[in-house]
Amino acid sequence: MKVLVIGSSGVVGSSVCRVLELHSVEYVGAVHSAVPREFEVKSDIRKPCLGLEADSLQDVTHIVYSAGSTRFDRTIDHERTLNTEPMMKLVELAESLPLLKKVIFVSTVYSCGLVSGTIEEVRHPDHTVEFANTYEQSKHEAETVLLDQNTSYQIVIARISTIISDESGAVAKYDSIHRSLQYMYLGLVGILPGDPTTKVDLISSDYAGQRIVQLLGGETRSIYHISSAESALPIERVLGIAREVFEELEPGWIAKGYPKPLYARLETFNRMGETMLEAGNVIVGGAYKALATYASQLCYPKIFDDTQTRLLGEVSVKDTETLFRDMVHYCVKRRWQ
Amino acid sequence: MKKSLYINYLDYSLGDTCHDVDTLASEGLTSSSAEFLRSVGFERVYSYNEPSNIFDSTLRLMIAGSKTVCPTDVYFYSGIDQDNSNEDLFGKFTYDSSRLMHESGMNGVRQMALHQSGCSGPFEMIRLALNSTSDNSRVMCVLSDMIPTGEGREVQYNLMSDSVSVIGFADDGWLRVVDVHTVYAQQFWNTSEDIEKITASYFTFAVRCLSELLDRNAMTADDINLVIPHNVSLRSWQILCELTGITIEKVYTDNIKRLGHTVSSDLVINLVDAKKAGRLQTGMKIMAFTYGFGSSWSATLLEVV
C-alpha cells in the first residue's frame, strides 16, 4: 500500500500522516506550500490533475483527499473553486494511476445542510436544501460529483465532524469555535441561537486520522460519519464545561458575573448581531460574526449516526467531555495565541 | 410596607430646543450615523440650553404637582446636579434638591435624593415609596436630567433628550403599583470599561428581570395589556419582545421617534402620553421596564383602577 495524502499539511491530513507513520505505511504528502518537505510533493488543486505529476505517482494505491477550503465566510463561487471543482481533477488524476484501489474524500457531516434528526451514513438527497455556509454547500456538491462517478477504484466519503483539537487538547489553528469561546471568556456572548439541549458534535483530529486510516483497508461502504454521534454533548453542557475551566484557571472568573447566554430564535440572534455590525460595533459585532458562520446549525438539532464507522473496530480516544475540557484549557492557558 | 400604592399625579416637561437626527449628526453630537439612528427608530430630541432652564422647569412642575400631591409627606429627588466642581467646600454641600423644596414652598418635608441609579431612578423611588413610607403617605418623586450643553447626545446607540418629570403617590390614585422588581449587576459598575459587556448581556438580564417579575405575580406575557418602555431603540425592543414573547404591538413605542430616551423620565412621559392617546383603560395590566447604568434592570407592574 502506498498512500497519497492530498492536503497533508492540514489538520486532518497531517493527522492521517501521523497514523500512517505509526503503522509504517508508505505515503507521500501533497501540499500547497511553496517548499515541500521530505515525503511531500507540491500540488495545486486548481490545476489539471491537482497540479501533480501522475508519472511520479504510479505506485500509489490509495488517495486520501483532505485539501480545500474550510473557511465559512467566502462566496459560493470561491468555495466551489476550492472544494467542488477540484473533484473532477481528482478523478482525472485517479484515472491515471494504474494501481489505485481507493480514494477517500474527506467531507463534512454538515454536508447534509440545515436539516434535523438522525443523519444516516448514506448519500444525501440531491434536492435543494439550505446550508449554514458556503463551505457546507460546496462539500455537498463535491460529494455529489464523486458519488456520480463510475470508477474502477472505490470512492469513499469520510464525513468528519467538528475537529476542536488533537487528543491532547492542543489546537493547531484557531477557528470560529475557538474564537467563540474566547468571546464568551470575555463576557461578550449574550445570545445564542437554538436550544440549550441541542447537541454539538465534536471530535479530535487524532480520532479523524485513525478512522480514515481504518477506511484505507479492505472493502468498505461508500459513506462514513466520523463523529461523536450519541456521545455529542448538549451545548449547555459544553458551555458549562467552558465556564468551569475559566474559573479553574482564573479563580474569580465566575464572580465577574457574565451571565450564561440566552437561547433565542435564529432571527432574533441575527437581529441583535446585525444591528451591532450595522452600528460599527466591532467587539460585540465581532463575537456575533464568529458565531454566525455556524450558528444556524444550532437551530437544527441532529445526531450524526456512526454505526458503520464503529463497525470498523475500536479506536481509543478520550470521551468528548474530557477532550473539550482539555481544549479549553489549552486555549485559556495560551490566551488564544 | 404600605398595603397599597397608587399613582395619582404624573407630569413632565421636555427641553426647550428640538434637534433632528440629521442636525445632531452633522454637528458631531452623535457617534453613529443619522441613517443608522433613524433605522433603529430615532428622529429627534429635546435639550435645555442652560442648566438654569431645567432648574426652572423642575420648579414649575413641582409647584404644579404640589397642588395635587398635597400635603406632600415625602419627597424623592433624582437628577444630575449642576456642575459644582469650582465651588468651595460649602458650595459642594449645596444641594439642588433642598433648594427646589424651599423654592416650591415645601420646607420641612422629609426628603431623599437618589443620584446614582441612572435610568432606574423612578423604579427605585417606587420601591422606596412602597416599602419605606407609611400608609396614607403622599409622596412626590421628581426626576430631572440634562446632558451638559455641547456634549454628545448618543449613549450606546440611543439618542437622548433632556427632561423633567414628577410622579405623585396618594391613596386616591388611578394607577396601582402591583409590584416592582430589579435585577442588580454591580459587576458592571465601571460603565466606561464594561460598556460592551453590558451591551452583550443586556438582553439576558432584561429577560431575567421581566420573567422573574411575571413569575412572582403568577402572570405570563399574555396577561400584560400594555408595556411602557424606556425609549431606547425600537430595534432593541423588537429583540426583547422576541425573547420574551411580548408582541411589539403591546409596547407603547410612539415616543422613541418623537423624543428618544431620557435618563429617568421615560416612565412618566410614556404613561402621560399613552393616557392622552387613550391607550390606558380601567382594569389594564401594565408592565414598565428600564435599564440603568450601574447596572440594574428594573420592571414594575401597574394596574389601571
List the helices and strands and how they pair.
The complex is a heterodimer of chains A (337) and B (305).
Chain A: E1 2-6, H1 11-22, E2 26-31, E3 40-42, E4 62-65, H2 76-84, H3 86-95, E5 102-108, E6 117-119, H4 134-147, E7 154-160, E8 162-165, H5 176-185, E9 191-193, E10 199-200, E11 202-204, H6 205-216, E12 223-226, E13 233-234, H7 235-249, E14 262-264, H8 266-278, H9 284-295, E15 302-304, H10 307-310, H11 320-333
Parallel strand pairs in A: 1-2, 1-4, 2-3, 4-5, 5-7, 6-15, 7-12, 8-11, 9-14
Antiparallel strand pairs in A: 10-13
Helix pairs in contact in A: 1-6, 2-4, 5-9, 7-11, 8-9
Chain B: E1 5-14, E2 17-20, H1 21-26, H2 34-39, E3 44-47, H3 51-66, E4 74-79, H4 89-92, H5 96-103, E5 110-113, H6 121-132, E6 139-145, E7 154-155, E8 158-159, E9 163-169, E10 175-184, H7 191-216, E11 226-228, H8 234-244, H9 254-259, H10 266-276, E12 285-292, E13 296-304
